[in-house]
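Our platform keeps sequence and structure together, in a single record for each protein. Because each token names a local backbone shape, the row as a whole describes the fold. One such record is reproduced below, unchanged from the form in which we store it:
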Amino acid sequence: EDTITALLHNNRKLLEKHITAAEIETFVSLVRKNREPRFLDYLSDLCVSNNTAIPVTQELICKAVLNPANGDILIETKLVLSRVEFEVENGGESRLEVGEDEEVWLFWNDSGKELRSKSIRELAQDAKEGQKEDQEVLSYY
């Protein structure tokens, strides 16, 4: 993969002539199989040559990545409304109140195709604490 990308990088004629839906699907398959950000970077590199967009390749990549059959390679981001309890002090007295808070959550399929979800705050905190899977999800995201 690295060799192919290096050959094609900044070579517009090669990109336009030799990058077809089949090659894009190969990279999408590599993303699915390995869940590594570098394969997403490769797809990104195929979109531009010498700082000029390559619309044909961009369209092929969009069609492939956004195809519902490839939805499992994407991480869904949602703003989730959650109920929170907080303590309010008033005149020396404290009481619990209930409110709502919005939080960003990520939803993705893990390597076993199981749906996973976590707030981005919790994901970042766990990644900082050294949880490898959370580090990998954030890196991919």
Summary: Helices lie at 2-8, 12-18, 21-34, 37-45, 55-65, 120-128, 132-140.
